[in-house]
Amino acid sequence: MADKDKAREFEYTEDDFNFLRRLSNQHSGILVPDDKFDMFYSRLSKRVRLLGFTCFKQYCRYLQEHPDREFTEFINAVTTNLTSFFREKHHFEFVAQTLLPELLKKNQSQKQIRVWSAGCSTGEEPYSLAMTLMENVPRDWDIKILATDLDTNVLSSAAEGVYPVDRIASINEERLRNWFQKGAGTQLHKVKIRPELRQIIYFKQLNLMQDWPLKGTFDFIFCRNVLIYFDRATKERLANRYAGLLAEGGCLFIGHSESLHQLDTPFSLIGNTIYKKTRL
């Protein structure tokens, strides 16, 4: 890694990168490897330009002196938000075919289902969950989905529920008719999630490394492609915190490249990156 790159618009050194990734880690717990050097430059150069600075050292100093003005913008810029509707399709199939039939029996007396999408990004995951639940749960049941993320920008986008048409290319016609509204005029190439889906989802900003002001228990939790960014001790601590909020026998869904193997947690693997809380 070179300290300086003459081709860059702004001076950007290894010291700058180390300061910025250390700051990110202290706040979010996310480990930033050496190969993210260029990514940090690419994502933060817009902020450097907007603030009128000529080098990243000035930006680092600004973050130190005015965290109240810039810190949220900084975290939003360096957070990764790759997602899509029904990503890792087998999870949604398991929910529909296996988990929901069990919950309909188990929760028959109170007729309610509670779900948490932790790391919801721009909303495709919680909306995919909402579709799955609305299609398979009787209409007189009370369904609520909590959707949280660290990035306030993606949360705002998610709550709006508007997407370019190319984002729904993989969704079948029946679902498109039932759950999406086509845009017109200036919104011609966009679609909007129907109100009946949006009204069961609650979007909230949450830092997984800090206190969780959450009440009650969840029947299952999706925390996919989030644990991969943390060290072993943090993964174990997070998994145990999730377990504490899950109902007895509740399920935790994680990403395709993640595992709880060799971590001390109350979970047992029951499917492809699907875990069940099997002890208190």
UniProtKB/TrEMBL annotation:
Function: Methylation of the membrane-bound methyl-accepting chemotaxis proteins (MCP) to form gamma-glutamyl methyl ester residues in MCP.
PANTHER family, A to Z: CHEMOTAXIS PROTEIN METHYLTRANSFERASE
UniProt keyword Cell membrane, yes or no: no
Alphabetical list of InterPro entries matching this protein: Bact_Chemotaxis_MeTrfase, Chemotaxis_MeTrfase_CheR, CheR_C, CheR_MeTrfase, CheR_N, CheR_N_sf, SAM-dependent_MTases_sf
Alphabetical UniProt keywords: Methyltransferase, S-adenosyl-L-methionine, Transferase
Keyword Heme on entry: no
SUPFAM superfamilies: Chemotaxis receptor methyltransferase CheR, N-terminal domain, S-adenosyl-L-methionine-dependent methyltransferases
Pfam annotation, one family: CheR_N
Record's protein name: Chemotaxis protein methyltransferase
Catalytic activity, reaction form: L-glutamyl-[protein] + S-adenosyl-L-methionine = [protein]-L-glutamate 5-O-methyl ester + S-adenosyl-L-homocysteine
Domain CheR-type methyltransferase: 5-280
UniProt-listed Enzyme Commission number(s): 2.1.1.80
